[in-house]
Automatic annotation (TrEMBL):
Summary of the function given for this chain in its UniProt record: Catalyzes the 2-thiolation of uridine at the wobble position (U34) of tRNA, leading to the formation of s(2)U34.
Protein name: tRNA-specific 2-thiouridylase MnmA
Residue numbers marked as site, Interaction with tRNA: H126, Q337
UniProt-annotated location(s): Cytoplasm
Keyword field: ATP-binding, Cytoplasm, Disulfide bond, Nucleotide-binding, RNA-binding, Transferase, tRNA processing, tRNA-binding
Native source organism of the sequence: Tessaracoccus lacteus
Length: 357
């Protein structure tokens, strides 16, 4: 099989490529250049798709004696991920840029180009399990390593995309992956995992947003509308936030206040008690099913953070969206986050949260 491996420059994609070579596949490595100015993106040990990473990926490809290319996806990445990130905060929502990158770049643009070039599949170093049935259907499941499971950030993939994907690390834990890399002589064997947002070089998300969005002042109010303070821009806040509110009026009970909602049109940030953060119903839009759409209410689990715990829920598709009724209240759920739906360890689909109440 001709396989295109997306090589980020980290240990996971390096071992994924090595495993495929060992299995006898015709493997080609590709690194994605996501910025026309690499210095503007995060670099060093905490990098992701940085200039250093491209060099690390090339060295691994040389050791494996496989072809290696760097593909320029800077324009696509800026439009689909960076601009989307800014627009979502402008609208008072909290996006997940890594999930959007998977959706729009790694498993759409790269897969499309790979297929056009004659490759049979695209592989990555994600920790997730793909199972193929006799009739050709593919189901996405959690990885064997629960601590590294990345099925959440793959929950937006369609059946057509999953059928062309390979995740060679589905059955191993991270220490084993590092040991395999060490045994193969890869310099990335001890390389730290990437963190934070790659296109915010200094890690200052609020500073980045302030440079791209107007610092329009507004009021911080409670649910009754009483003014408790002011702010320099709604993009500085997210639902569930407690620190940095700088309120001059203490709560009657002395309890800390949290951001309950963000209303960009009126430039208002609404705050309240921790108990007021609790929601039990999520409304989702931009629904993606990993297989056939599920008709009618069904019992499953909902996960709304990459490393969050799944919660039992009743899920029902309604028109073009869906409604998730959680068995137990959840806190800090923000519009713009993705909710990924599970049936046990199997990913059924995903949606972007439009409302949590």
């Amino acid at each position: 099989m001709r396989v295109l491996v997306a090589m980020s420059g980290g240990v996971d994609s390096a071992v994924a490529a090595a495993r495929l070579v060992a299995e006898g596949h015709d493997v080609t490595g590709v690194h994605l250049a996501l910025s026309k100015n690499p210095a503007s993106y995060r670099s060093g040990a905490r990098g992701c798709c940085s200039l250093e990473d491209s060099h690390d990926a090339r060295r691994v490809a040389d050791k494996l004696d496989i072809p290696f290319y760097v593909w320029d996806f800077a324009e696509e990445f800026h439009e689909a991920v960076v601009e989307d990130f800014i627009d979502e905060y402008r609208a008072g929502r909290t996006p997940n840029p890594c999930l959007r990158c998977n959706e729009k770049i790694k498993f759409a643009a790269v897969l499309d180009r790979g297929i056009a070039l004659g490759f049979d599949a695209v592989a990555t170093g994600h920790y997730a399990d793909l199972r193929r049935s006799a009739d050709g259907a593919v189901t996405l499941h959690r990885a064997a390593d629960a601590a590294k499971d990345q099925s959440y950030v793959l929950g937006m993939l369609t059946q057509a995309q999953l059928s062309r994907c390979l995740f060679p690390l589905f059955d191993v834990e991270k220490p084993v992956v590092r040991e395999e890399a060490r045994a193969l002589g890869f310099g990335v064997a001890k390389k730290p995992d990437s963190h934070d947002i790659c296109f915010i070089a200094d890690g200052d998300t609020q500073g980045f947003l302030s440079r791209h969005l107007d610092d329009a002042p507004g009021e911080i109010v409670d649910r009754a509308g009483a003014v408790l303070g002011s702010h320099a821009g709604t993009h500085n806040y997210t639902v569930g936030q407690r620190k940095g509110l700088d309120l001059r009026v203490p709560a009657p009970t002395g309890e800390p206040r949290y951001v309950l909602s963000i209303e960009p049109a009126s430039r208002t940030v609404v705050v309240g008690s921790r108990g007021e953060l609790a929601v039990d119903t999520l409304t989702g839009i931009r629904v993606t099913w990993t297989g056939a759409p599920v008709v009618g209410p069904w019992r499953g689990q909902a996960q709304y953070r990459a490393h969050g715990a799944p919660q039992d829920a009743t899920i029902e598709a309604v028109g073009d969206g869906l409604v998730v009724a959680l068995d137990a209240p959840a806190s800090g759920v923000a519009p713009g986050q993705s909710v990924v739906l599970y049936d046990g360890d199997r990913v059924v689909g995903s949606a972007v949260i439009a409302e949590a109440r």
